[in-house]
Amino acid sequence: MKKPIISPDLFALEGPQTVDEFIGETQDHARIFTRKAKELNNGTKGRLVVLFHGVPGTGKSKLALMIARELVGPVPAARHNIEKLNGQSMSVDRIRQWEESMHYYPLYGKRIVKVVDELDKAGEAAQAELLTCLDQGPMWWDFIATTNVPLGAILKRVTSRMQQVKVEPVPTEAVKQFLMRWIPAEPAEELARANLGDVRGALNDAATFLDQTKYITTDKNN
């Protein structure tokens, strides 16, 4: 298996750069939604309003950002059409700014995309205000959100207006095989089992394992 050129903790931080770098069911979602995003960017009528939900560490945030980039297309200036924030920062005032500007066609590119991680952390007032954008947003205005908690933490009026996609935990064997890019099979399996489908957690543990192994090896050589 080809060895990666970056450390596992750096990979956890930067995330997959291509669809094939996702693992488990997340890769299937990446393939489906990036294809749909390309079609929308190329002129297919419609909007993308989707909520990815499931346990932490499965790649939902990185998936949302990859989809957003496909929606705005390859023009560098169009990347400014993506606004990414955490639910804690999604205030009523901010959403009202979205409402005021969303009907203006983007200067560069063809679409405007809002990406909100942990939508559940937005207050109820902000979630309620979001309904205007979800109901009245133009065809070039897309909204992608994620949450790590049960959908009951988000107003039902909001989730009912979004396509809900559950991202299942990555199977232990798939996590093990992924970790074996960096570490041997035995510790890879142990870390995969311990993290229960949380790929990000397993990657960070693999980085710790490598650091400890390096320290032990160095200590023995001294």
Any overview of this molecule?
With 222 residues, this protein is α/β, with parallel strands linked by helices. It has a domain of 145 residues: Rossmann fold, CATH 3.40.50. The protein is built from nine helices and five strands. It has a five-stranded parallel beta sheet with strand order 2-3-4-1-5, covered by helices on one side. It is globular and about 55 Å long. It starts with 7 loop residues before the first helix and ends with a helix. The C terminus is likely disordered.
Separation of the first and last Cα atoms: 32 Å
Major sheet details: 5 strands, parallel
Oligomer: single chain
> Total number of helical segments?
9
Strand content: 5-15%
Could you report the average pLDDT, rounded to the nearest whole number? 92
Main sheet: strand order: 2-3-4-1-5
Runs with pLDDT <50, length 5+?
A: 215-222
What Rg do the Cα atoms give?
20 Å
Overview in brief:
This protein is of the alpha/beta class. The chain has helices spanning 8-14, 25-41, 60-72, 92-101, 124-136, 156-159, 172-179, 185-195, 199-221, and strands at 49-53, 82-86, 112-117, 141-147, 163-166.
